[in-house]
Amino acid sequence: MSADIILETEDLTKEFAGFVAVNGVGLKVERGTIHALIGPNGAGKTTCFNLLTKFLSPTRGRIMFKGRDITALPPAEVAQLGLVRSFQISAVFPHMSVLENVRIALQRKRGGSFDFWRSARSLDEFNARAMTLIADVGLASFAHWMAVELPYGRKRALEIATTLALDPEMLLLDEPTAGMAHEDIDRISALIKTVAADRTVLMVEHNLSVVENLCDRITVLTRGRVLAEGNYQTVSNNAEVREAYMGVGHA
């Protein structure tokens, strides 16, 4: 495994009762890049994400992260190694404030102890770091809002903040701009670019304009297989890709 490759899969395959959802996928993600996984509905993108973050076990194949075989590791250990999936496993509690949510995520990084039996005042040590993270994702003026009160795009920003509290080396973002208005898409795209300045990002994304503007490399899946890989120009000029995916237009 090259020192420049932070995440790699070999023959990654997942079968469900005879249906092959992911079929022999070989993926290489370079350190410090934003890498997109795209494809039509049913292409196997979400299953692939679930395999990488160990919420599913592969039927066969191998997953390497930072040169280490993580195929048999449980999700918590993979997260502790620095590979964290955002949005679906974020520590967002709707009836707690933005500050409280990020503070809890900072506690989570400490391991099994959440210090719930200690005085709330003893948790103030996390406030400075939490406020820095909140400011980093553009939520400084929302710090004392309840999470449930946040507009949709701002809630996604909070989810990124709680993920960053774990200090991940690599982020997996599952459709980060899904369901967003144009203004929120621009804000979250800018946030992802900032976050990726000193991290690696692998993202599933349907909005092709976001992919074009953000991503260094793109892997196209169809029917569980890798159809094409390269930069946006390369994959968008591929006739098979246009037939399988690009022809549906920008999301």
**Assembly status:** single chain
The second-level CATH architecture of the domain at 1-77 and 171-179 and 200-251 is: 3-Layer(aba) Sandwich
The largest sheet is: 6 strands, mixed
Number of strands: 11
Please identify which CATH superfamily of the domain at 1-77 and 171-179 and 200-251 we are dealing with: P-loop containing nucleotide triphosphate hydrolases
| Strand percent estimate | 15-25%
Cα shape: globular
Q: What is the N-to-C order of secondary-structure elements (H for helix, E for strand)?
A: EEEEHEEHEHHHEHEHEEHH
Task: Output the CATH topology of the domain at 1-77 and 171-179 and 200-251.
Answer: Rossmann fold
Which terms would index this structure?
9 helices, 32% helix, 251 residues, globular, Rossmann fold, alpha/beta
Walk me through the structure.
With 251 residues, the protein is α/β, with parallel strands linked by helices. The chain has a domain at 1-77 and 171-179 and 200-251: P-loop containing nucleotide triphosphate hydrolases (Rossmann fold). Helices cover 32% and strands 24% of the residues. It contains nine helices and eleven strands. The protein has helices spanning 45-52, 75-80, 98-108, 127-136, 152-164, 182-195, 208-214, 232-236, 239-244, and strands at 5-16, 19-25, 28-30, 34-38, 60-65, 68-69, 83-86, 170-174, 200-204, 217-222, 225-230. The strands form two sheets. A six-stranded mixed β-sheet has the order 7-8-9-4-10-11, with helices on both faces. Strands 1, 2, 3, 5 and 6 form a five-stranded antiparallel β-sheet that branches. β8, α6 and β9 (200-204) form a beta-alpha-beta unit. α3 packs across α4 (127-136) and α5 (152-164) packs parallel to α6 (182-195). The radius of gyration is 19 Å and the shape is globular. It starts with a strand and ends in a 7-residue tail after the last helix. The mean pLDDT is 89.
